[in-house]
Specification:
alpha/beta; 2-enoyl-CoA Hydratase, Chain A, domain 1; 2 domains; three-stranded mixed β-sheet; 53% helix; Enoyl-CoA_hydra/iso
Length: 262
């Protein structure tokens, strides 16, 4: 089970790698449990300031392993329980105050779409394809697809994707707002790491809290969200990192003002 997903941490960057390349990183029982374990670990570590989600092999994630479902799942309740395990990891990533970038090369389909949307910033290749395809085998969206897709692209486009046998091209996914960047196929992982390292080189704690505010907003009323924003910026102001950055900004502004008046 431990090899189904790999976790490494280097200078504040946790890299989570889906590692079932022979099955296009489709989720079986082993990957489901490894995913839940490793995502919780990555988001709980105090030495992690950013997370990079990528995958081994020719594709990012093909969703659920249908062959495994057919041979090892005796009933719908088995599927229900397995989805619950995977959802533990989805919640760990989306509810954390750690920014997540995905390097989603190749094809992303079915539940893989939900895994992609666990990220806060997604990079794909020019040859990438992204879709739902659940209905092709008589199943319905899971792994947060119905919870996150409409928020990401709007309700009408979400319906277009789940009600068609369709894979979006990389340029369509970018136009829809489903991904943030499209790069050359061999540059996906490199660019995603550049994004993560950029967070770490900056005020990564503030980036993480900004992510948390946006992600958690649907659970609050407008008034409660305003109060949470006020509380969060107050807490951020008191951190040593913010104090140092504010002082540096103020000093630079004073130098510019002095230069302009001299």
């Amino acid at each position: 089970m431990s090899d189904a997903i790999l976790l490494t941490v280097d200078d504040g960057l946790a890299r989570l790698t889906l590692n079932r390349p022979q099955r296009l990183n489709a989720f079986n029982i082993d990957l489901a449990h490894a995913w839940a374990e490793k995502t919780v670990e990555a988001t709980s570590r105090t030495d992690v300031g950013a997370i990079l989600l990528d995958a081994a092999g020719p594709a990012f994630c093909a969703g659920g392993d249908v062959t495994d479902m057919a041979s090892k799942m005796g009933s719908g309740s088995d599927i229900d329980r397995l989805a619950g395990v995977i959802n533990t990891g989805i919640r760990a990533l989306t509810e954390s105050a750690v920014p997540v970038v995905a390097a989603a090369h190749g094809t992303t389909a079915g539940g893989g779409l939900g895994i992609l949307m666990c990220s806060d910033y997604a990079v794909v290749g020019e040859d990438s394809r992204i879709g739902s395809l659940y209905a092709n085998i008589g199943l319905t969206p899971d792994l947060s697809v119905s919870a996150q897709l409409a928020r990401a692209v709007g309700e009408r486009r979400a319906l277009q994707l789940v009600l068609q046998d369709r894979l979006l091209s990389a340029s369509e996914a970018l136009d829809w707002g489903l991904v943030a960047e499209v790069v050359a196929p061999d540059a996906v992982k490199t660019r995603a790491e550049e994004i993560a390292r950029g967070w770490l080189a900056g005020a990564y704690g503030a980036y993480g809290q900004a992510k948390r505010l946006i992600r958690s907003q649907p659970s609050r009323s407008f008034a409660d969200q305003l109060a949470e924003e006020a509380r969060s910026i107050g807490a951020a102001f008191d951190t040593p990192d913010a104090q140092a950055r504010i002082a540096a900004f103020a000093a630079a502004s004073a130098r510019r003002a002095a230069k302009e008046t001299s």
